[in-house]
Amino acid sequence: MTMSMNSSNNYKVNTVTQSGVDTSNWGVKQNMETSAASENTIFGLNRHASTQPRSKVVMNAAAGDDIGFSVSGEFAGSTKDDHFDDIVSASPKVNKTARRMGSKARTRMILAALDKDHEGSWGDVDRNYVIGGNWKSNGDMDFVNSFPKEVLAKAEFDEKKVEVVVAPTDLHLNAVQKELKDTHVHVSAQDVSQYGRGAYTGNITADQLTDMKIGWTLTGHSERRTLFGESDADVALKTKIAVENGLNVMLCIGEQLEERESGKTGEVNARQLQAVVDELTEGQWGNVVIAYEPVWAIGTGKVATPQQAQDTHAEIRAWLADAVSPEVAGATRILYGGSVNGANCADLIGNKDIDGFLVGGASLKPEFADIIAAAHNDQKK
Ligand code: 13P
Second label for 180, Cα 20 to 30 Å away, from 6, 267, 323, 379? Predict the structure, then answer.
């Protein structure tokens, strides 16, 4: 197969599917011409440079085709020029052509060949939805004795498609759990100790939660980070001890307003996630759901637009593919949180990288059932 830049011959660029991908046939190939050249081979490009935004793209090519580049709408967080840059450093020959087109190399690339069957998109992978309700420091026994019965137990959803999890205060966990015992709604803690049992006044340990048959916890909520001074490293240790004890974790990340306005969203999310990547094994990501909660949208009524949320989720997924693995990127549920309500949830959930919500204020109201219904009714999966 010969490959050269030919801008008039464009192929659709897809992100890689994770399900069933046998990555054993991925390899570092510095020169595209030496890559496997079977009919309809798909080539994946993986940017490897810690200081650059990471990306991974795959394109279709039949043997003998010239490869050009088109960036489909599905591939967020990149531009045509970025792809030229990627290719440039993959092959000296293409490099020359791309230079003529006005791009220059910035990063080293890994070039991988995949079978046709593995074409697809991380975003298209079938992931169950998660709808989380974070009650924060709200609720009393009247609420605990009524809301689960009157709203949660009556919410209709397919539990194979949607996981519903509510996080009352620790004090109310047990009572809410009892109220929900004949339902498919799970309960979660809002936080967990980064330590084991011992002299840690005020902390509740991961194994105490599992002992109480609590299956979930949040970690890294922005209120913990900003009001209680939790560092990225603290959050990573909490996440690690939680998954080591068999808990599922909703790991919250997100940027402040100034960070978004100064174009640092990707950097902040990557920094917060990297601390967790450093602590977890690849397999432990199976217990982690990421909740992307831009801080400026939390409790403000100012929701991210569906496009802003989708773009950021796609960027997080691409980052995960690079930092952990394509399999983890494809399998990890990424929830949006920040002023989600019954009126805006349907527009948000329709985006392919949005796998559910972490809801604050509206999770204390009957409209939480509408948010669950929006996930249940969504047809993208
Ligand atoms: P709101 O839905 O009230 O904005 O809160 C979001 C949140 O912080 C969920 O964890």
Answer: 379
